[in-house]
Amino acid sequence: MNGLRAVGIIGTGKYVPEKILTNSDLEKMVDTNDEWIVSRTGIKERHIAAPEQATSDLAYEAAIKALESAGMTADQIDLIIVATVTPDTFFPSTACILQDKLGAKNAAAFDLSAACSGFVYSLATATNFIKTGMYNNALIIGADCLSRITDYTDRNTCVLFGDGAGAVVIGEVPEGRGFQSFDLGAEGSGGPLLNLAGGGSRLPSSPETIQDKNHFIYMNGREVFKFAVRVMGSATEAVLTKAGKTKEDIDLFVPHQANIRIIQSAMNRLDLPPEKCIINVDKYANTSAASIPLALVEAAEQNRMKEGDTILMVGFGGGLTWGACVLVW
Ligand code: ACO
């Protein structure tokens, strides 16, 4: 195939923090109830990082497992990308912090910011480095601690988010397998619908930004919902066309786990039966960049993929952004 190497997933790992926050816990914190949360979102519980845990700690646990599953040591990794919107610090990047923790001394390292689409954006980026021969192996982690930027007095958002990390090692695979196509996109005009306004160069941290709650996620849920349904459909169709495949070819659908109704609308559009879709939003809620890899890794743990299966991953998120890919396992 055009002289470039085939690139695919050769190791997987995931981590979620121990602490579980249930819907009934949230009932004691804000004016909400389990019935509302489950019927509107499908979420029953979410995992929350311990006070001493930062995003790199979650990423580290997932990365160690991914390396182990690939049968590789950290020094064999040429590139680390951490997809996150909740880095440990502005800089150094979480990827550099992780590189040091892992002892991945031969790896270049950077973070990638595309919110919930970040994992697919990162896969596309690293795949091209490997395809062209610049690198051999890359460690891609989607990791977020959304609990650190969630306002637990705002019922519109606090029921939706959780913390976690999913990691994959990617490298050369036999011809015909691996990533077949990507579809990435952005609609920057929709940025204000889903953002965290404070603490950057536009609105530096100050007593006022804290008072105005500018360090928490703001979301216009209804508009993001409409965007999500639209792009989940269009990105899925685009990425299938690029791969020369049709919806009938999909063996496993791995959507971003934000809301069960968004997932179901995508499944209806694809005429997919439930057994072809991985859903774990009930256990983890929306973990942003960790969402797709957590679902993928869980599917692998449950032996839901076999060699040669066609897997379609698709997500959307802040930016606004979207990302989809077709992978032959
Ligand atoms: N408990 C009880 N009532 C609530 C809650 C809650 N937790 N939250 C909102 N409500 C109320 C609202 O106040 C509103 O009341 P009102 O009619 O009296 O004003 C009512 O419920 C209905 O609110 P809607 O916004 O219309 O509810 P909707 O059906 O749209 O569901 C939701 C809201 C779940 C947020 C939905 O819009 C959604 O999932 N949007 C997409 C969110 C998403 O996917 N975000 C991705 C983020 S990705 C990233 O980058 C982090």
Give the C-alpha Rg.
19 Å
Question: What is the residue-averaged pLDDT?
Answer: 96
Give the overall shape. Answer: globular
Number of domains: 2
CATH fold name of the largest domain, please? Peroxisomal Thiolase, Chain A, domain 1
* DSSP E strands, number: 13
By CATH, the architecture of the largest domain is named 3-Layer(aba) Sandwich
Hetero groups in this structure are: acetyl coenzyme *A
Describe this entry's structure for a reader.
There is one protein chain. This protein is an alpha/beta fold. The protein is 33% helix and 24% strand. Strands 1-7-6-4-5 form a 5-stranded mixed β-sheet, sandwiched between helices. The chain has a 4-stranded mixed β-sheet with strand order 8-13-12-11, with helices on both faces. α4 links the parallel β4 and β5. The site of acetyl coenzyme *A has 23 residues, from α2, α6 and α8.
Short synopsis of the structure:
By secondary structure, the protein is α/β, with parallel strands linked by helices. The chain has helices at residues 23-27, 34-41, 55-70, 94-102, 118-131, 155-158, 207-211, 221-243, 260-270, 281-284, 291-301, and strands at residues 7-15, 19-22, 45-48, 79-83, 108-112, 138-145, 163-172, 178-186, 194-195, 218-219, 252-255, 310-317, 321-328.
